[in-house]
Design goal:
Number of strands: 12
Helix content: 25-40%
CATH topology: Jelly Rolls
Oligomer: single chain
Strand order of the largest sheet: 1-10-7-12-4-3-2
Number of helices: 8
CATH architecture: Sandwich
Order of helices and strands: HEHEEHEHEEEEHHHEEEEH
Shape: globular
Largest sheet: 7 strands, antiparallel
Number of domains: 1
Length: 263
């Protein structure tokens, strides 16, 4: 069932796993340290309501942190068995934290960008980076998947992760056409802003928007091509002093061809 969910819907979730709960308990102080570290304060955005924390968790390539065990859980087993991904190194996880009233406008953010963050959850597909003053999109990163690991308890309305079910196949088809006739080495040089926006609009029209929240010891996995984002913090939603804290692993697994064509 999980395999069907993942490949058809573009995501699946995993129930409580004591192995993962143990990892979370050990990793939480390191995640908290990352959030408080002076050198990481440039990740505090959206008027102080979002700590982006990209690569903020200083885990080893097996997912372990000092004095702890490597990352093992049902989700990792699924990645190995269903996705066939076994020989890769874990990236330094993103420590993503949202706080009440997320999102607030960022300094220098255009009104249209802020509206998109509020109305469309800042929806994006990883790897298609916005560059330069005009925010032109190029394919730069080739993640294998997105693994979300909640680190603390929080309400379901506290800025949950958002996915558009089935969006990964729309992204795949649109970019197959976009890159047709070009060698993979050329893909990154192509400005894909328009095709990306067209694909995103098609997804908003055709795909169901789903909110995902989970508890420590649980996890969820999203397909690398899935359109996803962060929902605004709902009124009356609660979280502890840590806010809504989630660690995301997004290891780069393959080159551009694998990013587009792998299952």
């Amino acid at each position: 069932m999980k395999k069907s969910d993942f490949f058809v819907k573009g995501w699946c979730r995993f129930d409580y796993d004591p192995r993962l709960a143990k990892w979370v308990r050990h990793a939480l102080p390191f995640a908290r340290e990352s959030v408080k570290s002076p050198e990481n304060q440039h990740w505090l955005r959206c008027g102080g309501t979002w700590f982006a924390g990209v690569n903020g968790l200083q885990n080893a390539s097996d997912g372990s942190l000092e004095g702890g065990s490597k990352l093992e859980c049902d989700a990792v087993d699924f990645i190995s068995q269903a996705l066939g991904l076994t020989s890769f190194e874990w990236d330094a996880a993103q420590v993503s934290v949202c706080y009440p009233n997320y999102p607030q406008p960022m300094e220098g953010e255009k009104p249209a960008a802020y509206r998109f963050r509020r109305k469309r959850d800042a929806a994006h597909t990883d790897g298609l980076l916005a560059e330069g003053p005009d925010r032109r999109r190029h394919l730069r990163e080739y993640h294998g998947f997105i693994l979300g690991i909640p680190m603390v308890e929080y309400d379901s309305g506290a800025s949950p992760f958002v996915v558009w079910e089935g969006s990964h196949e729309i992204i795949r088809q649109e970019f197959k056409h976009c890159f047709e006739g070009l060698s993979p080495e050329q893909w990154g040089s192509l400005d894909v802003t328009e095709i990306y926006h067209q694909a995103r609009d098609k997804i908003f029209e055709q795909c169901q928007r789903v909110l995902i929240s989970a508890r420590p010891g649980e996890a969820y996995l999203a397909h690398r091509l899935t359109l996803h984002g962060i929902s605004p913090w709902k009124n009356q939603a609660n979280a502890g002093s840590d806010g809504r804290m989630i660690c995301y692993f997004r290891p780069e697994i393959s080159g551009p061809e694998g990013w587009l064509f792998n299952p």
